[in-house]
Amino acid sequence: MCSACGYPSRPGHWTDAGAVSAGDRLRLRYTRVAAINRLLAPYGLKAYDDGATPGLQLIASGGATELVADLEGLWQAAARIAGRPIDPLDARVLSDV
Fold first, then answer.
1. What digits encode the pLDDT tens for the residues 41-87?
2. What angle do CA 21, 73, 59 make, to 5 degrees?
3. Are 64 and 87 in contact (CB under 8 A)?
4. 9 near 2, Cβ under 8 Å?
5. How far apart, in whole angstroms, are the C-alpha atoms of residue 23 and residue 51?
6. Spatial distance between the Cα atoms of 62 and 45, rounded to a whole number of angstroms
7. What's the rounded Cα separation, in Å, for the pair 84 and 78?
8. Helix H or strand E encompassing 58
9. Burial level of 56, CB count in 10 A (0-12/13-18/19+)?
10. Which residues, including other chains, have CB under 8 Å from residue 64's CB and lie 6 or more apart?
11. Is 11 left (phi over 0), alpha (psi -120 to 50) or beta?
12. How far apart are CA 61 and CA 94, in angstroms?
């Protein structure tokens, strides 16, 4: 259990497979959040991963922030805040990628 946030320790994300060192895992987390932010940008949302806290922060354009435990929770919270499902194949998203 994380003493800072109260989330239980979680196993690594499947996209961390092949990471040899802690530095590799951290680099992969930052690469993953950069890709997530490209998908969220057209919806006025942004994800933040500080590399130390379990989970992600989801930040709305108005400044509201929600802490989510994992990617599944991120997409659910993003859809709720955006008021519609987040579609990575939406033309607005694809034009920015």
1. 999 999 999 888 888 999 999 888 999 988 889 999 999 999 998 88
2. 90
3. no
4. yes
5. 10
6. 9
7. 9
8. strand 56-60
9. buried
10. 81
11. beta
12. 20
Q: Which residue's structure tokens are 């990575």?
A: 88
Q: What is the pLDDT of residue 3?
A: 55
Residue in this structure with the two tokens 């989970």, named with its chain if needed: 55
φ, ψ of residue 25 in degrees (nearest 5): -65, -40
* Of residues 18, 20, 33, the one with CA closest to residue 68: 33
Do 96 and 41 contact (CB within 8 A), yes or no? Answer: yes
- Sequence-separated (6 or more) residues with CB below 8 Å from residue 76: 68
Which tokens hold the place of 7? 């989330």
Alpha helices in the chain (DSSP H): 22-40, 71-82, 91-96
Torsion of CA 8, 14, 19, 22, to 10 degrees: -20
